[in-house]
Amino acid sequence: MGLVFEDGGGGLPLVRRVWSASCDGATGFTSAVKGTSMIAFARFGGRWTVHLRGPETRATELTCPEGWEFFGVELRLGAYLPLFPPSGLADLHDALLPTLAGDRILLDNRDWEMPTAQNVDVFVERLVRAGLLFFDPLVDEIRHGERPRAMSERTAQIRFRQAVGISCRKLVSIEQAQGAARLLAAGEAIADVVDGCGYYDQPQLARAMRWATGHTPGELRSGVPFLAL
After folding, report:
1. pLDDT tens across 107-117, in order?
2. What's the CATH number of domain 168-222, 1.10.287, 1.10.10, 1.25.40, 1.10.4160?
3. pTM of the shown model
4. Burial letters for 180-205: b for 16+ Cβ neighbours within 10 Å, e otherwise?
């Protein structure tokens, strides 16, 4: 098996999950759409790279190179680093943080210890305490059509995009497609997924799966590999 992927709970209020992956051979896969931001760490030949990644609004064909190791944290919706707005990181426009000798990370003119997959939660906590990782509590309200009375709809949408990197409407379509893809990958009948996920018909579902996962509904049901990384 070329790609080994492990997924676990975040354990922190601002973390949705912690994941790790390794490649014992060059392996192609599809990175599916996602609406959240991520801090990812990659190592090859003893050297580290640190990536800040925003939401992905279309599926992308990627390759996991042989010998590389990865881990990262997927942040809770509405959590982001104000120094690196998510809108500027969307669709694989990653920000690469400088790394220093001794496995240190340069961020906000300070050097930070490089975390491991086992203690990355400590790194996240330190970012929060330093004021570098922020959470907008209004994101959940706005995504469900609620907002403070004094806030206009336009202001709410601007605030949502600032924290998430995409519009609320785009997030809804991404989450709809994610739910459908999970059901198809679990073997659900295509007609049932159309009805259960709110698509008009099978052609609309097929178009959504193409842009969201890079595969047809039939391919997803057959077990073709895709990852929401």
Report:
1. 999 999 999 98
2. 1.10.10
3. 0.87
4. bbebbbeebebeebbeebebeeeeeb
